[in-house]
Write a structure and sequence with these properties.
- By secondary structure, this protein is an all-alpha fold.
- It contains 15 helices and no strands.
- The longest helix is centred in the last third of the chain and has 35 residues.
- It starts with 6 loop residues before the first helix and ends in a 7-residue tail after the last helix.
């Protein structure tokens, strides 16, 4: 019998996928887009994610656990889907590469300032390839180790309580936000949660015992709780104007940590964020790998994985400056948000049609 994913591993996987480079700027994004005490808006935004996850659950139940590719190909001729598959695969490769490259550009700000980011990116690509050549089960097991190595960083929030002041929250609500429009403000902050939609690619690797969507909810809500705590601490540690002026408040807060036996603690702590950003990049590349396998089912072992890794490295040559990377990632996250909502809306009627053709519904 084929091995199936455990709900514990799935929950940790979703948590680590969502914990990418966007998390570094979450307090600033909240301050800019929602103003004073804007941290409270993380709760309804997280609720929208939950609604989106429930749409994927409907797809899974109606489609009887069939993969999204089976649902698509049951209603649309495969030759018509090939261009769509190619575009999706290329986009996810670019997104995974952009997440990894942006992390390394940020890392370069606090360490290795004289080192070429592309040299470090080569090492990152080797790690992507090493994980990509494993099965999803191997990726999940590696992710569990990465989670254990990095989860302790949440406890660092206790360090800031001595200088944390409730008065910095002010008595005003949602004042001083940028006037970019409600939709723009929501999407800027919503981008922090991108990654949960990859649960759609886990359908073939789970069964009823996996409790897929319960695990996805736990993983997402755990991440949302950590982001809420982080933002809340930053709102009480920095002034509102400071938050709006700091590019990466999370990194800036780490600079205040002082230990008698370690110099520049932020360099050490920030290194552990590599694990979550690596998992984010790998899982978007994994989605691209599954997509390309539908086009090239007879491809030799590891050929597609090597090709994807080479494309990741090639995309890394694009943004060489941090501001270029920020702009590129902002656009790509917005496209991914649109895909996250559009995919289940398209798949639900296709799943109904698939069920009528003989597919079984999941309880």
């Amino acid at each position: 019998m084929k091995e199936k994913l455990n709900h514990f591993h799935i929950a940790l996987l979703i948590y680590m996928i969502e914990l990418d480079v966007a998390a570094f700027s979450i307090p600033r994004l909240v301050a800019e887009n929602f103003g004073t005490n804007g941290w409270v808006m993380l709760i309804p935004i997280s609720g929208v994610v939950v609604i989106n996850v429930l749409l994927y659950r409907i797809v899974y139940r109606i489609g009887g656990g069939a993969s999204i590719f089976e649902l698509l190909e049951a209603s649309v001729p495969k030759f018509m889907l090939v261009p769509f598959y190619v575009l999706l695969a290329l986009f996810w490769i670019c997104l995974g590469a952009s997440i990894g490259k942006h992390f390394l550009l940020v890392f370069r700000l606090i360490a290795f300032q004289t080192t070429s980011p592309m040299l470090i990116f080569i090492l990152f690509c080797f790690m992507v390839y090493a994980l990509l050549t494993k099965t999803i089960y191997g990726i999940c097991k590696a992710n569990t180790i990465f989670f254990v190595l990095s989860v302790w960083m949440v406890a660092l929030t206790a360090y800031f309580w001595e200088d944390w002041k409730l008065i910095r929250f002010t008595g005003f609500w949602f004042k001083g936000a940028l006037d970019g429009g409600a939709l723009q403000n929501w999407t800027e902050v919503y981008s922090v949660f991108i990654g949960y939609e990859l649960c759609a690619f886990l359908f073939p690797f789970v069964d009823g015992k996996s409790k897929l969507f319960r695990a996805v909810m736990i993983g997402h809500l755990s991440f949302a709780g950590v982001m809420l705590l982080t933002t809340w601490v930053c709102f009480g540690f920095f002034s509102f104007e400071q938050l709006k002026g700091l590019q990466y408040p999370l990194i800036s807060s780490l600079e205040y940590i002082e230990l008698p036996f370690v110099n520049r603690v932020e360099n050490l702590v920030f290194t552990f964020f590599l694990f979550s950003n690596l998992i984010s990049a790998v899982m978007f590349c994994f989605a691209a790998l599954l997509t390309l396998r539908r086009i090239f089912p007879g491809a030799r072992e590891k050929v597609l994985e090597a090709s994807i890794t080479l494309m990741v490295y090639g995309v890394g040559w694009g943004p060489q400056l941090l501001r270029q990377s920020i702009q590129l990632l902002r656009y790509m996250f917005k496209i991914e948000m649109a895909l996250a909502f559009a995919l289940p809306v398209i798949l639900i009627p296709l799943a109904m049609r698939y069920r009528k053709k003989g597919g079984e519904a999941k309880p």
